[in-house]
Design a protein that fits this description.
Tetracycline Repressor, domain 2, globular, 87 residues, mainly alpha
Length: 87
């Protein structure tokens, strides 16, 4: 499998969604490899293949949250439903 394999991308996306859910629902103290693997529906071994350290999970999860937050702000403040700038 290569880095651009769709299966790898799907697995990473599931893991990131699990990280976001755990962070939002239970806070960073709930972020363990076991909890993330269970929430993502992957094995711990698979999770470790993608994210060896807890810090990497936390970084990727917070990075994704920030990206979504900024995209939401931009959509809200700068684009109306008709596609025109609001401000």
């Amino acid at each position: 499998m290569t880095e651009d394999d769709p299966r790898i991308e799907r697995t990473r996306a599931r893991v990131v969604e699990a990280v976001l859910a755990l962070l939002l629902e239970e806070g960073p103290e709930s972020l363990t490899h076991q909890r993330v693997a269970e929430k993502a529906g992957v094995s711990r071994r698979t999770l470790f293949n993608h994210f060896e350290q807890k810090a990497a999970l936390l970084y990727r999860g917070t990075d994704e949250f920030i990206e979504r937050f900024i995209a939401g702000l931009a959509a809200y403040f700068f684009v109306s439903r008709e596609g025109r700038r609001r401000a």
